[in-house]
Design goal:
mainly alpha
Length: 122
């Protein structure tokens, strides 16, 4: 049985670039000017001065929160699940301020004021 011998000429021949058939891709013809549409105003984004909050919640509650967001997003004008959760937290804060602080806003606390993990005795 004879062994096949590989043609090694491809390994020693310099490579050449293929010429593109499309002159626009090749860059030899300037691309046509395309009229741009008037930008559509976007929904307001969450302010850039927001802070990230990571929470762990029950998977079923998270699924229900997603469903509630999807069911109410267009009616409430909420652009994202994050914005929806932010509004829900704001409502909860206003409820607690009304119940425990005479409706006055609490003084905001810094990050280090709240201990990590669970509060003891709660």
């Amino acid at each position: 049985m004879a062994l096949k011998v590989m043609d090694t000429s491809a390994l020693t021949t310099p490579l050449a670039k293929a010429r593109p058939a499309d002159p626009i891709i090749a860059g030899s013809v300037p691309a046509p000017v395309v009229a741009t549409a008037t930008p559509v105003p976007r929904q307001p984004q969450i302010a850039s001065d927001t802070t990230k909050l990571t929470v762990r919640i029950d998977p079923e509650l998270l699924g229900r929160a997603r469903a509630a967001f999807m069911a109410s997003a267009s009616r409430l004008g909420t652009p994202s699940l994050s914005a929806w959760c932010s509004r829900a937290i704001e409502k909860a804060v206003l409820d607690v301020e009304a119940e425990l602080n005479g409706g006055n806003p609490f003084t905001p606390l810094g990050v280090d004021a709240v201990p990590k993990g669970r509060l003891s005795g709660v």
